[in-house]
Automatic annotation (TrEMBL):
Gene3D superfamilies linked to this entry: Dehydroquinase, class II
Gene Ontology terms, MF aspect: 3-dehydroquinate dehydratase activity
NCBIfam families per the UniProt record, alphabetical: aroQ (TIGR01088), PRK05395.1-2 (NF003805), PRK05395.1-3 (NF003806), PRK05395.1-4 (NF003807)
Name of the gene this protein is made from: aroQ
Sequence similarity: Belongs to the type-II 3-dehydroquinase family.
Active site, UniProt feature: Y23 (proton acceptor), H98 (proton donor)
Protein's name in the database: 3-dehydroquinate dehydratase
Keywords, in A-Z order: Amino-acid biosynthesis, Aromatic amino acid biosynthesis, Lyase
InterPro entries assigned to the protein according to its UniProt record, in alphabetical order: DHquinase_II, DHquinase_II_CS, DHquinase_II_sf
Positions bound to substrate: N72, H78, D85, I99, S100, R109
Site residues, Transition state stabilizer: R18
Amino acid sequence: MKKIIIINGPNLNLLGKREPTIYGSSSFEDFYKALKEKYSEVELDYFQSNIEGELINKLHEVGFDFDGIVLNAAAYTHTSVGIGDAVKGLETPVVEVHISNVHSREEFRHVSFIAPNTKGVITGFGLQSYELAIQSFL
């Protein structure tokens, strides 16, 4: 059984409440429950933190024995050299995901410190971005 973890960064705990015109009206918990049912042949795990160091610690914890990491580092994507370096040091492949199309938003969101160290980037497909990333590992 493949082991895949979704790691979400800051403010993604507010999905369904925060800026629904950009991020939709579903909570991530409801979406995650549906993903677990749909991909029952996968050991799917989930972690969310608003704290950069906790995200790095989780990447270190899972980055050598999972089959895939789906990472939405949110705003840290564009600011965290530390998360980019953590991803670079892992054996487990990482797919960077974003709910919105970051390239149609503010210019600072066009730069990722994580993308150069990933298997790929999926952006702009809403919550389906996560599902596309999971499929890339199967």
